Amino acid sequence: MRSLPFVTVDVFTDTRFAGNPLAVITDARDLTDREMQAVAAEFGYSETSFILPPRDPANTAEVRIFTPVTEVPFAGHPNVGTAHVIASLGSLFGRDIGDLLRFEEKAGLVEVSIRRHPDGSVSGTTIRAPGLLTIGTVLTPETVAVCLRLRAGEIETTRHLPVFASVGLKFILVEVTDLDALAAASPDRDAFEALSLAHPTEECDCAMFLYTPIGHDHIRARMFAPLDNVLEDPATGSASAALGAFLTTLSPPVNHRRLRIEQGVEMGRRSLIDLDVISVDGVFDHVTITGSSVEVMRGTLSL
């Protein structure tokens, strides 16, 4: 029997039992891909991350991320939470850890900076999304409304139609008319499956990120991914980053825009995701995702 060390953290919050839970396997060197997937399914969180030695010694670690049903190339809350765990450990695979980390991931190299309290404990982490903004297929309000059990009129189309977008992981971005529509949304798995089959070239499980503005640069959001066995996610950094990048294409050009995404409220797991969207000469360059995490559990799995 093998023992596998793990830590769980609640991400995008400084309060236990809020935010988005994440399991971090701190030494996954002896695991096969199949075992990683089985461990992620066992935890049942929206994602579980697995830490491996870096392929390039100039980097901090290789990080692999699994949902309960599949591996994903990049995700926001696993990176924010994994960075918190590594920085709190202080060393990894016999090497000391500083406050600038680099993770090797399927989507590319993810750069991380660590913020600390005066006593040296980790106060937050900031990651840079690895991808450029890609914008895909535009969908009709009627198609999306069926998936969300909403009326077509509750899909806001003044600024944009529902659209596939990514800065490392693809989502369908959907603006709804108000907080009532956001609260009323509920995913219809059959409709999600039909939508996925209708758009095979998007190579996406049609995860939907719903949002509505609630103040200046303050947004409330929800995320549904029933085809990944994630009925609803309390905090989705990668989707927030895609939204922040996409919104820059709809606004007058600025070199720096800061957004706060509030998510998970309807689930009783309020999360706060802070974005800094950077443009150069009015053209999107990159987006960073910042959040706090708090440790909840520490232990071992038996394999």
UniProtKB/TrEMBL annotation:
<dbReference type="GO" id="GO:0005737">
    <property type="term" value="C:cytoplasm"/>
</dbReference>
<comment type="similarity">
    <text>Belongs to the PhzF family.</text>
</comment>
<dbReference type="GO" id="GO:0016853">
    <property type="term" value="F:isomerase activity"/>
</dbReference>
<dbReference type="Pfam" id="PF02567">
    <property type="entry name" value="PhzC-PhzF"/>
</dbReference>
<protein>
    <submittedName>
        <fullName>PhzF family phenazine biosynthesis protein</fullName>
    </submittedName>
</protein>
<feature type="active site">
    <location>
        <position position="47"/>
    </location>
</feature>
<dbReference type="InterPro" id="IPR003719">
    <property type="entry name" value="Phenazine_PhzF-like"/>
</dbReference>
